[in-house]
Design brief:
267 residues, globular, single chain, 9 helices, alpha/beta, seven-stranded mixed beta sheet, 10 strands, Rossmann fold, 28% helix
Length: 267
């Protein structure tokens, strides 16, 4: 899917207009500064129980499959970075199915990284987890420069304030090989979650704060063009993925919208 119907745009914009408003400038600034702290508290409350293992990743991104046709890049065949690795819900299923992959995993939450390292499946011969805020801390402190074939940015850029996204992209470029690929998936505009936010949760255009203080930004495909394609990346794929989720108990149908992209680094 590349575009929304005129009817969907009309309905969604009407909903967003009714909830138009914004949190105070003080609160917005405070939440942006406390991003790492709020995610650390999130993992303190939920430990490893909140997110399910993401077995869909290889289906959506063939580059992560065992036979991906990528030339060897490390002692394990292919080197990848999972940005926003959380407690390993992406890392461990991918390692289980692909013995040729070495994965670096980073997260701005020290608690999340500690959970990854404490997992029985954590093997330093196959992966390395470390704490990093990619908006301000160099990835090259833990990953050799221009050494990676792939960077997976799955549901992590939405937690970054928009003004801090460009330096994060520059950071990713520092560890990607020329020709390396960013695998991107995140929340899209008109997602059911965006339509449910209250006016006091809105920090700026399409940036919201959840009740626990963590941030959620909702992307358009044009955002990715501005963010990546204007900075040395060429899109292989950049589209919307729309899925209808049914809550049978509450008899609700929710339309989830994601932005999915595969972007090749061509300096």
């Amino acid at each position: 899917m590349t575009e929304f119907s005129e009817e969907k745009i009309r309905v969604c914009e009407a909903i967003l207009a009714r909830t138009e408003g914004a949190a105070s400038e003080f609160l917005a600034g405070k939440l942006k500064k406390e991003t790492a702290r709020n995610w650390d508290l999130f993992y303190k409350r939920n430990t490893t129980n909140f997110f399910k293992d993401r077995h869909w990743v290889e289906r959506e991104f063939p580059e992560l499959r065992p036979v991906a046709g990528i030339a060897p890049a490390s002692k394990c065949g292919c080197a990848s970075l999972f940005k926003g690795c959380g407690v390993g819900n992406f890392i461990f299923p991918t390692l289980d199915s692909n013995s040729d992959l070495f994965i670096y995993g980073c997260d701005l939450s020290k608690r999340a990284v500690d959970f990854v390292k404490a997992d029985a499946k954590y093997d330093t011969q196959r992966c390395k987890a470390f704490v990093c805020d990619i908006t301000s801390q160099p990835l090259t402190d833990n990953v050799p420069p221009h050494s990676l074939d792939l960077v997976s940015a799955l549901f992590c850029f939405s937690a970054i304030p928009p003004d801090q996204m460009p330096p994060a992209v520059e950071n990713l470029k520092s560890v990607l090989k020329p020709g390396g690929i960013v695998l991107f998936r995140d929340y899209g505009i008109y997602d059911a979650a965006q339509l449910r936010f209250k006016p006091t949760s809105k920090l700026s255009d399409r940036l919201y704060a959840r009740h626990d203080g963590t941030l959620s930004y909702f992307f358009s495909t044009a955002d990715l063009d501005r963010l990546f394609c204007a900075n040395g990346f060429v899109p292989i794929e950049n589209t919307y993925v729309v899925k209808t989720v049914v809550n049978r108990k509450r008899e609700l149908h929710m339309e989830r919208v994601f932005v999915q992209a595969r972007l090749r680094y061509q300096p």
